[in-house]
Amino acid sequence: MRKRLPDRIQMKVDQLVVDPRTKLPLLTLRAVDNGVSLRLSIGVFEASAIATELERIAFERPMTHDLFARAIEAMGASVVAVEIHDYKDRLYHAFIELDRGGERTRLDCRPSDAIALALRAGAPIHVSRRVLEKRS
User: Fold this and answer.
1) Which of 61, 53, 45, 55 is nearest to 123 (CA)?
2) Is the Cβ–Cβ distance between 51 and 41 less than 8 Å?
3) End-to-end CA distance of the chain
4) What pLDDT was estimated at residue 34?
5) What is the strand order of the sheet 91-100 is part of?
6) How does DSSP classify residue 71?
7) Per-residue pLDDT tens digits for 36-57
């Protein structure tokens, strides 16, 4: 009998590679505590944003995700977490959870953008159990 996963699993970026067949970037997330993984196909620009943050490459001018992170901070908010919360019609759905003075807001977004922002903000990345169950 398989052990039931918690409702939300904290994950980290494990691998970013190019699929040799499609030539598209593949991002693998791996659970922090149990080895469960999730692989996502993402866009080239989003992969670049994630890779540059993983490699700590700094540009002279801010890139889009850097600008968004700075704008959130300038408004007195912080990124609490991001979550990939659903998988339907062959698409993953995510949100960014923000906190501003105790007020929480969730913004709908693409998972790759959420992950790129979470890396910049040092925020945890979560995947819902429902997503992992739909994909297994």
Assistant:
1) 53
2) no
3) 15
4) 82
5) 37-41, 25-31, 8-18, 125-128, 78-88, 91-100, 103-109
6) H
7) 999 999 999 999 999 999 999 9
Please tell me the pTM assigned to this model: 0.91
d(CA 119, CA 117): 5
- Kindly list the structural domains of the chain, giving each domain's residue range(s) and its CATH number in brackets, ordered by start: 8-135 (3.10.690.10)
Place of tokens 């991001």: 82
Residues with Cβ within 8 Å of residue 133, at least 6 apart in sequence: 5
How far apart CA 118 and CA 136 sit, in angstroms, is: 25
In order of 3, 25, 62, 63, 66, the CA distances from 52 in angstroms are: 36, 14, 12, 10, 11
pLDDT at 63 over 80: yes
Would you place residue 1 in the very low, low, confident or very high pLDDT band (cuts 50, 70, 90)? very low
User: Is pLDDT larger for residue 35 or for residue 28?
Assistant: 28
